[in-house]
Amino acid sequence: MEVVLAGDIIGSQKNQPIAYLKTIEEVLKRYSSPNRFLIYRGDSFLAWMDRPELALDCVIELKAALKRTALLEVRIAIGLGSVTMIDNDIAKSTGTALTKSEELQDILKSKKQEIMIDSGRHLDVYMNSLLKMALLFMNEWTENAAATVYEMFKTPHITQAELGKKLGVQQATASRRLNRAHWQETQEVLSVFKHYYKDGSDGSID
User: Fold this and answer.
1) Do residues 52 and 197 lie in contact, with contact meaning Cβ atoms separated by under 8 Å?
2) What element of type H or E holds 168?
């Protein structure tokens, strides 16, 4: 089971590409298989990952990274399935993960939901409902909240004192920002995703 992310920037016409292209590339490089992501049309991207359990980490980190400087929003479809790589080029490749992510990307606008998943299992209904609820607070992240969440993804074992130093604020301020960003709830959503999407062998809820 592999993952393909298909995404695009919301309202990219109102922002200069320099505001988001470097950010997208930096995050995708950390999660995607080497040289197997593509940024095209200036505001859209495809990325192949071979670790399904990290797909949502990548998606939420990317969301936080874009909101921390320009308050940009991103729409991302997560497709799980197979990938047949051709010429080491994701744009030429085929497979169910690609098909699912691209088809789901077309649905996101009508659903008015920025993050959804399609693995072809009944579990997706529950996960997409959870994501819809999580987006209620993630879409409200301020630049400070998004920057705080982004640092937690980059250095997950950082202490709050160290986080404060990185952000240039007191530890208490860093702690308040984490609470306002609903970092604990974000971790819980990620934990659910990791548990049920770590592979594609079982779609049951136990």
Assistant:
1) yes
2) none
Q: Are 49 and 5 in contact (CB under 8 A)?
A: yes
Q: What is the DSSP string of 114-144?
A: SEEEE-SSTHHHHHHHHHHHHHHHHTT--HH
**C-alpha angle with apex 196: 203 to 108, nearest 5 degrees?**
85
- Distance, CA of 173 to CA of 7 (rounded, Å): 33
pTM value surpassing 0.85: yes
Which amino acid appears at position 175 of this protein?
S
CA distances from 27 to 9, 21, 111, 128 (A): 14, 10, 26, 23
Return the residue matching tokens 């649905």. Answer: 107
Q: Is 175 exposed, middle or buried (0-12, 13-18, 19+ CB in 10 A)?
A: middle
Q: pLDDT by residue (tens digit) across 124-157?
A: 999 999 999 999 999 999 999 999 999 999 999 9
Q: Which domains, from first to last, does the chain contain?
A: 2-197 (3.30.70.270)
